[in-house]
Specification:
- The protein is mainly alpha-helical and 502 residues long.
- Helices cover 47% and strands 9% of the residues.
- The chain is built from 20 helices and 12 strands.
- Strand 1, helix 1 and strand 2 form a beta-alpha-beta unit.
- Helix 1 packs across helix 10, helix 16 runs antiparallel to helix 17 and helix 17 packs across helix 19.
- It is elongated.
- The protein binds one RNA strand of 75 nucleotides through helix 4, strand 7, strand 12, helix 11 and helix 18.
RNA sequence: GGGGAUAUCGUCUAGAGGUUAGGACGAGGGAUUUUCAGUCCUUAAGCCGGGGUUCGAUUCCCCGUAUCCCUACCA
């Protein structure tokens, strides 16, 4: 039987990287084994505020972003759907009834208040909290009385009072759970919606899931689900509980840890292959290969459950940034340039794209003035970029006003505009640049070198003031390339502006 | 309170009953260079504690400790 795995998020808000890693592991296993990867929407929690319908679209968007298209799912279709749990209510109801009829589950009429009181008393007495099974053995008369009262009910799983459930986890080995210690879990809520335990078990079976790869937080619920498989007479899938991803405070990754939403990583300009590579390494390793940079095909080739760690991993933004920088440098410059363009436009450095009604002439002008310039300028900063959104900071000076009247770094000015030879140097430099027949990086370099010779300076003495005068900063790409990219017009305008004030 | 999981450099991890405990990020140093970045070289940094088992444990077992997860009509 071919491997079938699923990622089953609930639409409770913006998807974050923890879920994404789970999805990636599932996807990787499916690719490796030539199986199917399904995505199912677990929207059984209708609590206002918790149910966020739009997040289904965010989820979909993140699959597009990382390029992991499900073989089946709520937005791709498939033969065992629907893949949205709220559309499968009758199925769950049927199984709930069956379980009650067979005595493996029972109706519980307890009110929230009663449950609450019970819990308070347990806590007060220092007892373990949990449902005390008070409605497990109701007589038909008692049930009828509750019904007559108009009380609603839930369906609870009747856990065996003795024995153990043994989970054979693919990552952690054998784990035993005492049945008597398990709660009689609610399977069907009073609003008719199933809980995770019922819905997930039923769907995984009906959808022929062979491997359940999910977060470690589900480990304690395993015995209940195993019990369901048993009483329903279904074969259990293989289970693998993945270690959680935690923040630097060692707590499970959550909103308070800052930017953990996938959307944020997209917006900041993380390349999908970098995020994927990084996330996969958070809890998985290729053994003694001593490598950490892998392409997607290489990951697929090497992936196996055996390589998954058992201990929680701290999400290290620094390493992610390093990796993203690496992938940016590895990429075709054209791709990076294209991806940078939206940031430049958003920052107002480059005008928005022309409307489709623009004339060919206008389009050509836009291309020459803006797109060609962007293509010339962005590559100079690629090796300095850790995230794409930094591009606006990095290349900003290229787009400032012609004579660049504002924005000089204070320290840079203090250090390099105070040198005694500044004015004569600028005068010579300006004259030489004006006279230059062809504006190339090589020619610019020659001029600066001859300037060094005639003035009896070191190269650095000329380079630094020139850099500050033309870029406003002390750091950046090589000066000759920078001046070339800037263009003679801008360079001269900026040099003259400084000269006049010197 | 109960249940479960986990424990190797600051972080991600490799590893094996006997190794100089390996790699990566980050940090320090150096080289390259007009700065930064990049690249290359390099240094420091680790087996939670206590018992066993064993000729020998960081590795296997037990206990402790610590951390995390679950303990909802949330997933």
């Amino acid at each position: 039987m071919s491997v079938r795995v699923r990622y089953a998020p609930s639409p409770t808000g913006s998807p974050h990287v923890g879920g994404l890693r789970t999805a990636i592991y599932n996807w990787l296993l499916a690719q490796k084994e030539g199986g199917q990867f399904l995505v199912r929407l677990e929207d059984t929690d209708r609590t206002p505020g918790r149910y966020v319908p739009e997040s289904a679209y965010d989820l979909e968007e993140s699959f597009h972003y990382v390029g992991m298209m499900p073989d089946e799912g709520w937005f791709t279709g498939g033969s065992v759907g629907p893949y949205v749990q709220s559309q499968r209510l009758r199925i769950y109801l049927g199984y709930a009834d069956k379980l009650v009829a067979e005595g493996h589950a029972y109706r519980c009429y307890c009110t929230r208040e009663e449950l609450d009181t019970m819990r308070q008393e347990q806590i007060a007495k220092g007892l373990p909290t949990g449902y005390d099974r008070r409605h497990r053995y109701l007589t038909p008369e008692q049930r009828a009385a509750f019904e007559a009262e108009g009380r609603s009910h839930v369906v609870r799983l009747a856990m065996p009072l003795e024995g153990v459930q043994i989970l054979h986890d693919e990552i952690r080995g054998e784990i035993q759970f005492e049945n008597s210690l398990q709660d009689d879990q609610v399977l069907l809520k009073s609003d008719g919606f199933p809980t995770y335990f019922l819905a997930c078990t039923v769907d995984d079976h009906l959808m022929k899931i062979t491997h359940v790869l999910r977060g470690e937080e589900w480990l304690p619920s395993a015995p209940k689900m195993l019990q369901l498989y048993d009483v329903l007479g279904w074969e259990r899938p293989k289970f693998a509980h993945l270690p959680v991803i935690v923040g630097t405070d060692k707590k499970k990754l959550a909103k308070r840890h800052g930017d953990t939403q996938i959307r944020t990583f997209m917006e900041q300009g993380y390349l999908p292959e970098a995020l994927i590579n990084f996330l996969v390494l958070l809890g998985w390793s290729a053994g003694d290969e001593n490598r950490e940079l892998f392409t997607i095909p290489e990951l697929i080739e090497r992936f196996s459950l055996a390589g998954i760690a058992e201990s929680p991993a701290v999400f290290d933004y620094e390493k992610l940034k390093w990796m993203n920088g690496h992938y940016i440098r590895q990429s075709e410059p054209g791709r990076i340039i294209g991806m940078c363009l939206p940031y430049l436009r958003k920052a107002g450095l480059v005008p928005e794209a022309l409307p489709s009604t623009a004339t060919d002439q206008e389009k050509e002008a836009y291309r020459v003035e803006w797109l060609d310039y962007v293509r010339r300028v962005v590559p100079l900063e690629i090796e300095r970029m850790k995230v794409l959104s930094e591009v606006t900071e990095l290349v900003g000076f290229f787009f400032q006003k012609m004579d660049y009247p504002i924005g000089y770094e204070e320290k840079a000015v203090a250090k390099w505009f105070g040198v005694s030879y500044l004015k004569p140097m600028l005068a010579q430099e300006i004259a030489a640049f004006e006279a230059l027949p062809e504006w190339t990086a090589q020619n610019v370099e020659q001029i600066l070198h001859s300037l060094v010779d005639t003035m009896g300076l070191k190269l650095a003495d000329v380079v630094h003031p020139t850099r500050v005068a033309t870029t406003g900063r002390t750091v950046g790409p090589g000066l000759f390339e920078t001046l070339h990219a800037l263009g003679r017009e801008r360079v001269l305008a900026r040099l003259r502006a400084v000269y006049e004030r010197a």
